[in-house]
């Protein structure tokens, strides 16, 4: 399996062998440079693809699901748009999972309460969602996770079990922090990229093309365009007899521990 550990062992081994050969036959330094650059490249791709399981095991779908069940997840809230999202979910009888940012819970605790009251699930999406989160050390990441858990747990029936790393990027420090906290990492296999574009047609077509049983969709409850796309998406799912279920049901994992 291509994991951070295996790749590190492999490349250290290759570099040692090259060093050994270099004692007898001179190897051009470009070979060393090329191998190190390839190593860095694999690390970069592995860190940025949550489904690669490179640093952390992430649940990105349920490939054994045969029924037309799909899970929708919303990142980066709660925000004022979350209320519109909740209304739509109610209208289409859909259950979703919200990955919340700690500082946004502090701003909108009443919206978080509404999410829970409506029967949806919540998970941890860091406290700051900082652009530099991937450069934080284990201790700083651990503190952010704990702080956000505490904010969420004021409203949930148990301890938070789900975590989604900001930007879906994982690092050795995040892996070590999660080893201590014991959270399950939840990824996705249907990304809308609604954070990057406001073109509704583009976003909708992108997700519709990828819909299949057991899939996990990533949307954001932070913009008006995402809300408009959501309504069309929910209509599409209804017309195609898809049931929108929670992550708990789709993955058979508990969102909250006792
Ligand atoms: Zn996010």
TrEMBL record:
Domain named NodB homology: residues: 68-245
Entry keyword set: Membrane, Transmembrane, Transmembrane helix
Pfam families given in the database record: Polysacc_deac_1
CDD domains, per database record: CE4_NodB_like_6s_7s (cd10917)
InterPro entries cross-referenced by the UniProt entry: Glyco_hydro/deAcase_b/a-brl, NODB_dom, Polysacc_deacetylase_ArnD
Membrane-spanning ranges: 7-25, 31-50
Stated name of the protein: Polysaccharide deacetylase family protein
Organism lineage string: Bacteria, Pseudomonadati, Bacteroidota, Flavobacteriia, Flavobacteriales
């Amino acid at each position: 399996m291509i994991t951070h550990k295996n790749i590190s062992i492999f490349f250290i081994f290759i570099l040692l062998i090259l060093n050994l050969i270099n004692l007898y036959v001179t190897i051009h330094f470009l070979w060393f440079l090329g191998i190190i650059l390839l190593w860095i490249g694999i690390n970069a791709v592995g860190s940025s693809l949550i489904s690669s399981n490179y640093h952390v095991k992430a649940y990105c779908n349920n490939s054994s699901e045969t029924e037309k069940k799909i899970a929708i997840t919303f990142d980066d809230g709660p925000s004022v748009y979350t209320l519109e999202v909740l209304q739509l979910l109610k209208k289409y009888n859909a259950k979703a999972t919200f990955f919340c940012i700690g500082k946004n819970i502090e701003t909108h605790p009443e919206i978080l309460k509404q999410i829970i009251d409506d029967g949806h699930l919540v998970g941890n999406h860091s406290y700051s969602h900082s652009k530099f989160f991937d450069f934080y050390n284990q201790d700083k990441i651990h503190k952010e996770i704990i702080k956000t858990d505490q904010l969420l747990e004021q409203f949930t029936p148990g301890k938070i079990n789900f975590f989604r790393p900001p930007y879906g990027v994982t690092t050795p420090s995040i892996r070590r922090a999660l080893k201590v906290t014991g959270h399950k990492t939840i990824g996705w296999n249907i990304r809308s990229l609604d954070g990057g574009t406001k073109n509704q047609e583009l976003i909708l077509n992108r997700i519709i093309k990828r819909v299949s049983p057991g899939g996990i969709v990533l949307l954001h409850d932070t913009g008006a365009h995402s809300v408009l796309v959501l309504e069309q998406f929910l209509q599409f799912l209804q017309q195609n007899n898809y049931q929108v279920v929670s992550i708990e049901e789709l993955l058979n994992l508990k969102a909250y521990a006792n």
